[in-house]
């Protein structure tokens, strides 16, 4: 009887087995999928580097495995490696000679591990990578001093990800060896102070500081920066250093902060995208016109206690000091307190294409006197207090899409 009942099961399994090993005499034992010079060994329950991969492997992906330590001899067999990825393991350390034979390695992803445990030994390992360009250390529970040690002497790095760690305070020692740094992601830490942290990184172009606890950015003087993201902080003041130099800044994201004033932007810049949504921005120049009673409070000075050379003065009520907004294409002011546009403000933006003003306090709008740019194609003034919108007949081309819902 038992023999009879087994037979149909065997018959079912046989064709499946044939499909799994098509036309091959060697059953596939490697946990890795090989595509050209890449070995993809993700999610394969590995705790050590598989041996027997091609000697000339250039990319090795070992994400979502169970690595705790990367041992000195792990990579000896793969001297052509350019890209190594070990994200989402339980890595505590890389032994100090791990990269003795990895002189070509350019990209190393160690995201989401536990390198806070063995950062000292790991730092010795990293120093043996002369051509390392991209390093991802995000989500490793790293504190300020761990990061300083890990990054010492890593002079070739161009891209660095430190997001989701425990950084609180950065100073001029933090990134002092990273002279080639172009892109730095510091979002989702607990930072409240940046003290000259980027002074040694003259090539830095993209900086993400979103989701931290920064209270202000005064003395902003990073002329080479192209993208700055400081959204979701507690910024009350953004004040540029009044340098007689053109800032390369194109995108500035200050959304979801506590700004009371339109940011004090550089006087010469290429700024195209300015995101200021969800702050408390309004304009105050109507206050400044009203006589002398405000004399004593019209300037505010910021003192850097350690270094008096960095005093910054801002003339608060002078809306003429918005800085260079002549290249703006997108201005996002959703969810602020704007009651009116200062005289000439809109005209300063001849290439503006999107103006997002929904949920503010606008009361009147005279499209004729504001002289909106001819390239404006989106104007969102919904959810304001508008009771009057004035426009010359035929003034606007049909391309403009205007949202006006929820007004008086
Ligand atoms: C994963 O590997 C461990 C030993 O390294 C073994 O005990 C376990 O059964 C493996 N799990 C799976 C799902 O293969
Ligand atoms: C790091 O750089 C410093 C000076 O640039 C040098 O003295 C030191 O030996 C380097 N350390 C290592 C481990 O390479
Ligand atoms: C940095 O790492 C985080 C988390 O691993 C990721 O979400 C983010 O996209 C990375 N940043 C960049 C610029 O690649
Ligand atoms: C700034 O960073 C936040 C968080 O990563 C992201 O949601 C937002 O899109 C970024 N802003 C820009 C302009 O890219
Ligand atoms: C700013 O620089 C320009 C040319 O680079 C020069 O003509 C001008 O005088 C400078 N202004 C100030 C205030 O230094
Ligand atoms: C200042 O003057 C403007 C008109 O120029 C007026 O609308 C505003 O209420 C005045 N503000 C104060 C505080 O007196
Ligand atoms: C305000 O400042 C002006 C010039 O700076 C001065 O003439 C005037 O007396 C001041 N008013 C008060 C009330 O201090
Ligand atoms: C900055 O302010 C302090 C305190 O008022 C002052 O002593 C110092 O001279 C100022 N420095 C500069 C460069 O203005
Ligand atoms: C709107 O602005 C134009 C041009 O400045 C002006 O002629 C017109 O009187 C204004 N309309 C209203 C209702 O204020």
User: What proportion strand?
Assistant: 15-25%
Major sheet description: 16 strands, mixed
- Numbering strands along the chain, what is their spatial order in the largest sheet? 1-2-3-5-7-8-9-11-13-15-17-18-21-22-24-26
Mean pLDDT: 85
| End-to-end C-alpha gap | 86 Å
How many helical stretches? 5
Rg value: 29 Å
* DSSP, total strands: 26
Low-pLDDT regions: 1-28, 291-296, 303-310
Q: Which secondary-structure class do the elements indicate?
A: alpha/beta
Bound molecules: 2-acetamido-2-deoxy-beta-D-glucopyranose
Helicity range: 10-25%
Shape verdict: elongated
Keywords: Leucine-rich repeat, Repeat, Signal
InterPro entries: Leu-rich_rpt (IPR001611), Leu-rich_rpt_typical-subtyp (IPR003591), LRR_dom_sf (IPR032675), SLRP (IPR050333)
Organism: Lates japonicus
Pfam family, one: LRR_8
Describe the protein.
Helix 2 packs parallel to helix 3 (144-151). Mean pLDDT is 85; it is low at 1-28, 291-296 and 303-310. This protein has helices at 2-20, 119-126, 144-151, 285-288, 367-370, and strands spanning 33-35, 38-40, 59-61, 69-70, 83-85, 93-94, 107-109, 134-136, 159-161, 169-171, 183-185, 193-195, 206-208, 216-220, 227-229, 237-240, 251-253, 273-275, 299-302, 312-315, 330-332, 354-356, 364-366, 378-380, 388-390, 401-403. Strand 8, helix 3 (144-151) and strand 9 (159-161) form a beta-alpha-beta unit. It is built from 5 helices and 26 strands. The strands form 6 sheets. The chain has a 16-stranded mixed beta sheet, with no helix packed on it. It has a two-stranded parallel ribbon with strand order 4-6. 11% of the residues lie in helices and 20% in strands. It has 408 residues and is an alpha/beta fold. The chain is elongated and about 75 Å long. It binds 2-acetamido-2-deoxy-beta-D-glucopyranose (9 copies). One 2-acetamido-2-deoxy-beta-D-glucopyranose binds next to helix 4. One 2-acetamido-2-deoxy-beta-D-glucopyranose is lined by residues 45, 47.
């Amino acid at each position: 009887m038992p023999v009879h009942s087994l037979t149909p099961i065997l018959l079912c399994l046989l064709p499946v087995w044939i499909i799994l090993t098509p036309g091959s005499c060697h059953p596939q034992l490697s946990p890795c999928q090989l595509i050209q010079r890449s070995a993809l060994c993700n999610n394969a329950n590995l705790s050590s580097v598989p041996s027997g991969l091609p000697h000339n492997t250039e990319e090795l992906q070992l994400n979502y495995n169970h690595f705790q330590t990367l041992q000195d001899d792990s990579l000896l067999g793969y001297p052509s490696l350019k890209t190594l990825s070990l994200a989402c393991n339980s890595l505590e350390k890389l032994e100090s000679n791990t990269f003795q034979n990895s002189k070509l390695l350019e990209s190393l992803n160690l995201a989401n591990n536990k390198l806070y445990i063995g950062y000292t030994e790991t730092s010795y390992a990293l120093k043996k990578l002369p051509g390392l360009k991209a390093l991802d250390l995000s989500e490793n529970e790293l504190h300020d001093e761990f990061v300083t040690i890990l990054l010492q002497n890593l002079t070739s790095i161009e891209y660095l990800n430190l997001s989701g760690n425990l950084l609180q305070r950065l100073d001029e020692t933090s990134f002092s060896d990273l002279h080639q740094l172009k892109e730095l992601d510091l979002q989702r830490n607990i930072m409240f102070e940046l003290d000259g942290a980027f002074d040694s990184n003259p090539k830095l172009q993209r900086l993400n500081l979103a989701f931290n606890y920064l209270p202000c950015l005064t003395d902003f003087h990073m002329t080479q920066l192209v993208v700055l993201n400081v959204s979701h902080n507690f910024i009350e003041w953004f004040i540029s250093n009044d340098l007689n130099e053109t800032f390369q800044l194109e995108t500035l994201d200050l959304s979801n902060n506590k700004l009371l004033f339109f940011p004090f932007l550089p006087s010469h810049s290429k700024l195209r995208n300015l995101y200021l949504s969800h702050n408390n921005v309004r304009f105050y120049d109507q206050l400044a016109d009203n006589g002398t009673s405000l004399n004593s409070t019209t300037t505010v000075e910021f003192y850097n206690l350690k270094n008096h050379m960095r005093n910054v003065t801002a003339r608060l009520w002078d809306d003429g000091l918005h800085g260079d907004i002549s290249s703006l294409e997108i201005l996002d002011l959703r969810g602020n307190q704007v009651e009116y546009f200062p005289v000439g403000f809109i005209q300063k933006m001849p290439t503006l294409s999107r103006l997002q003003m929904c949920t503010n306090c606008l009361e009147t709008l005279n499209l004729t006197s504001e002289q909106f740019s001819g390239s404006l194609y989106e104007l969102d003034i919904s959810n304001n207090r508008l009771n009057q919108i004035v426009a010359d007949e035929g003034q606007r081309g049909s391309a403009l899409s205007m949202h006006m819902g929820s007004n008086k």
